[in-house]
Amino acid sequence: MTRLRELIDPFLLLLLGTVALASLLPARGDGARIADAVADAGIVLLFFLHGAKLSRAAIWDGAKAWRLHLAVLATTFAVFPLLGLASQQIGAVPDGMRAGLLFLTLLPSTVQSSIAFTAIARGNVAAAVVSASFSNLLGIVLTPLLVALLMQRTGSGSLISLASVEGIVLQLLLPFLIGHLARPWIGGFVARHKAMIGRVDRGSILLVVYAAFSAAVVEGLWQTVSAGEMALLAGLCVALLAVVLCFTWGLGRMMGLARAERIVLVFCGSKKSLATGVPMAGLLFPASSVGAILLPVMLFHQIQLMACAVLARRYSAQVDKADTELDI
How far apart are CA 148 and CA 170, in angstroms? Predict the structure, then answer.
């Protein structure tokens, strides 16, 4: 029971609760417009705080491992999308969720959890900070471009509109840059109130999820998705993560990376960001399709947390065992 509590992220329960609330009491009419406006404000605050948390000192400390960072970016924005394209051949998955699988593979890496798992596993934390942060920042530009290139080609989406570009710049990129520039004045406050900042992060995501699923439920999302299709989707997410985890560890060994850097490649290269994916989906896709597109993103989010928690503890135990043997 204790191990189960460690594996299940409490945020998952909040996400499920938010989806249930949107399913039972979806926002409609003026309520939907208010929910969208509040969610947009939460997104701006979320990316402002992400920018404020990015330390320039950590960037310089970890930037030396350039081969590692290139490997992380190649896995995130090349290997993952190729797997996403392969997933489009699975006809048993409904079109909306299949598009969500492809969208999932185009997202950048997570920041907080990648760094946290690297620290637990005794990896190179400074390098993880650089890889995860740069992947997330680069994803603000690369993910929409990949969506336009790959999802248009597969018939899963449409070309990015000028309004989408403006939304990404004004709601994601600009707040991030302003937050980073404001770091000399607010960095101390952000560092002292990490718990509160974390609640703001998660609260912003929950607001966007509620607004997105409200629109999808109003359009009849749950009338078009069966339990079997959800089980198949979960299985595909597990398979996708397993392939990438094996690939990143093998790539690290092939490149001759030190163990601490291989750990960074595993955790930063295999993760996909819910915090970036949720608001970006709302900006890139019609409101009626966002709910189905986000289902794979939310499933993969929890699966990656559980798998990486197990791996991080295993890597840490291996280091402890090696240290003990040296002492003996």
Answer: 19
- Helix H, strand E, coil C: the string for 45-83 is HHHHHHHHHCCHHHHHHHCCCHHHHHHHHHHHHHHHHHH
Nearest to 84 by CA among 151, 134, 137, 152: 151
- Name the pLDDT band for 263 (thresholds 50, 70, 90): very high
Pairwise CA distance, residues 305 & 300, whole Å: 8
Closest CA to 51 of 198, 174, 212, 232: 174
Query: Dihedral, CA atoms, 291, 292, 294, 296, nearest 10 degrees?
Result: 160
Contacts of 205 (CB under 8 A, 6+ apart): 15, 42, 46, 274, 275, 278
Say if residue 249's pLDDT is above 90: yes
Please enumerate in sequence order all residues whose Cβ is within 8 A of that of 35, keeping only pairs 6 or more positions apart, or say none.
27, 207, 210, 211, 214
In percent, the amount of the chain with pLDDT more than 90 equals: 20
- CA atoms of 251 and 111, how far apart (whole Å): 21
CA distance 4 to 142: 36
Q: Which helix (H) or strand (E) holds 21?
A: helix 10-24
Classify 315 as helix, strand or coil: helix
- Tens digits of per-residue pLDDT, 48-75? 887 787 666 666 766 677 899 999 999 9
